[in-house]
Amino acid sequence: MFTGIIESIGKIRALTPKGGDVRVYVETGKLDLSDVKLGDSIAVNGVCLTAVELPGNGFAADVSRETLDCTAMNDLKNGSPVNLEKALTPTTRLGGHLVSGHVDGVGEVVARTENARAVEFRIRAPKDLAKYIAHKGSITVDGTSLTVNAVDGAEFLLTIIPHTLSETIMASYQPGRRVNLEVDLLARYLERLLLGDKAAEPAKSGNITESFLAANGYLKS
């Protein structure tokens, strides 16, 4: 588990094909690795990866085909800056929100607007994730815990303050960039709870719809 509070901006130093997937080598910058052991988890742009090598100035991790297919990791190349966060411990200050490091989908930056010293980003999420994104709710973008300021269909607005711009890779975002998205865990569990006994039925009959909510008393007629 993670908090979505980025601890360091690292750099991709190598991407090496290995047995059908990829081994990635990450230079970790100011991230303190003194308490990191082989097998520990580190989030790279919001993707939970397992450290399999610790050469001293960073770590290496294996990235499966599944992860490459379901995230924006395929867009990385040598020299790409990345957000880094070590897995939380029982004594970690939870400054963001609970983040699993399991990416739900890939979004796209569709607009960037300067707003005083802040920057506003409009991001388009995959349509199947739109129902989990709420005004003033939490969302993780490339591993960064953020508050949604507005929602319009599958698009949502973020206002990023100067501190976040300087401590994450978001300052480099431009329209067209693909970003890893993880929705709030509570929204996922709430959906399952609303299904009740229907959660055990095949997925084709398990989707939350307006008619389902009305029939089960969640909407007033």
Protein architecture, described:
- The protein has about 220 residues and is mainly β.
- It has three domains: about 10-85, Elongation Factor Tu (Ef-tu), domain 3 (Beta Barrel), CATH 2.40.30.20; about 105-185, Elongation Factor Tu (Ef-tu), domain 3; about 185-220, no CATH class.
- Helices cover about 15% and strands about 35% of the residues.
- The chain has four helices and 13 strands.
- It has helices at about 65-70, 160-165, 185-195, 210-215, and strands at about 10-20, 20-25, 40-45, 45-55, 60-65, 80-85, 105-115, 120-125, 140, 145, 150, 155-160, 180-185.
- The strands form two sheets. The chain has a seven-stranded antiparallel β-sheet.
- The chain starts with 7 loop residues before the first strand and ends in a 6-residue tail after the last helix.
- The model has no long low-confidence stretch (mean pLDDT about 90).
Give a brief description.
The chain contains four helices and 13 strands.
Strand order of the largest sheet: 10-9-13-7-8-12-11
> How much beta, percentage-wise?
35-45%
Structural class: mainly beta
Tally of separate domains:
3
Class of the largest domain in CATH? Mainly Beta
Mean pLDDT: 90
Number of strands: 13
Helix-strand topology string: EEEEEHEEEEEEEHEHH
Helicity, as a percent range: 10-25%
Largest sheet: 7 strands, antiparallel
Question: Quick one: overall form?
Answer: globular
Q: How many DSSP helices?
A: 4
Cα distance spanning the termini:
41 Å
What's the gyration radius in Å? Answer: 19 Å
Architecture per CATH nomenclature, i.e. the level-2 architecture of the largest domain: Beta Barrel
Contiguous low-pLDDT stretches (5 residues minimum) are: none
The third-level CATH topology of the largest domain is Elongation Factor Tu (Ef-tu), domain 3
